[in-house]
Amino acid sequence: FKSYHGTGCPPAGCPSCMTLKNGKVSVTELFEPHIGKFIEIKAIPRFDANKQIAGVVHVVSDISDRKKAEKELNEERHKLQSILSAMNNGVTIRNLDYDLIYQNDYSLKVSGNHLGEKCYRAFAGLDRICEDCPVELSIKDGQPHTAVKKAKMPSGEITYWENISNPIKDENGNVMASLEINIDMTERKRS
User: Fold this and answer.
1) 13, 74, 7, 6: which is closest to 34 by C-alpha?
2) CA-based diameter of the chain, in Å?
3) Residue with the larger pLDDT of the pair 33 and 44
4) pLDDT in tens, 163-177
5) Strand, helix or coil for residue 3
6) Which residues contact 135 (CB under 8 A, 6 or more apart)?
7) How far is the C-alpha of 1 from the C-alpha of 4, rounded, in Å?
8) Among 7, 49, 94, 144, whose CB has the most other CB atoms within 10 angstroms?
């Protein structure tokens, strides 16, 4: 206790104490101020021949680098979400089956929540992929594509949208989804 916690007794929520009581593996992550590190403590019960707890294997890992990376990733995620929420354009992501897996706030406001639906059904009322679909092209060739499409809004209004599709690739360069930015061009088309 003295080496890790700087105390003469186990800390509150000690995983080894819990394991000794219930005989199950216990895992805890915490910041230990005495050593100035984030640590993961894993307590694994050891049983004797009579299946009684004979002791506990106490494994401690320094997870400070992981915690720092998680914090930085969270901060970046919040920045990206703020940018996407502030955009005055629709941003959607479709998987390789054309299911909508993300819509930013603007897209939700303009066209409603269609997560889990096929994009061509949700946005064009079709039972098949739209003709000249930029998402289809991006999925096929891994390149960005653009198309201007006419759409009928839930209100009945006819609108025009520039749809810019960009492939999302995995670490091996394989297309795993497509991000599409939708820019309302209705006023420009009318003038």
Assistant:
1) 6
2) 86
3) 44
4) 999 999 999 999 999
5) helix
6) 94, 98, 119, 145, 163, 165, 178, 180
7) 6
8) 94
Q: Is the pLDDT of residue 138 over 90?
A: yes
Residue among 45, 46, 39, 33 at smallest CA distance from 60: 39
Q: At which residue do the structure tokens 């009322």 appear? A: 125
Residue 129 DSSP symbol: P
Angle (CA) 133-88-74 rounded to 5° is: 95
* CA distance to 27, 112, 140, per residue, from 166 (Å): 41, 22, 11
pLDDT grade, residue 74 (50/70/90)? very high
Alpha-carbon distances, residue 122 vs 126, 147, 157 (angstroms): 8, 18, 16
| Distance in angstroms (rounded) separating the CA atoms of residues 31 and 140 | 47
Structure tokens at 138: 């991006």
Q: From residue 12, give the alpha-carbon distance in Å to each of 7, 16, 23, 60.
A: 11, 11, 18, 16
Long-range CB contact pairs, 97-104, < 8 A, 24+ = 98/129, 98/135, 101/177
Tokens of 168: 């999302």
